[in-house]
């Protein structure tokens, strides 16, 4: 995204190149936004499921039902949608990527002026 934004700045007079790079940036950003938004929502829903299971009347329930509820709580506790098993897909991650892209762009702009 940083290189494409830099490409837009370099080809500002050429409408075709600018539009092509801008279209690519919008596509990449929207795809990243969708993954991060759904990852954040799924993580939040799993936390709500854990709280709902904990809040149900499990005391005095049959042992089989208690085990099933414990399994549900354990599964919901560990759920986080990640990108490649490395970084969680969340709105915070999206903002980190956009901030890092901006930082790299400013770094490139600094060298362009020299």
Biggest sheet features: 2 strands, antiparallel
Count of distinct structural domains: 1
Shape: rod-shaped
Radius of gyration from the alpha-carbon trace, in angstroms: 22 Å
Strand order of the largest sheet: 1-2
- Quaternary structure annotation: single chain
List keywords for this structure.
4 helices; mainly alpha
Describe the structure.
The protein is mainly α and 114 residues long. It has one domain. The chain contains four helices and two strands; from the N terminus they run H-H-H-E-E-H. The chain has helices spanning 2-10, 15-55, 63-77, 91-113, and strands spanning 82-83, 87-88. The longest helix is centred in the N-terminal third of the chain and has 41 residues, at 15-55. The protein is rod-shaped and about 75 Å long. The model has no long low-confidence stretch (mean pLDDT 86).
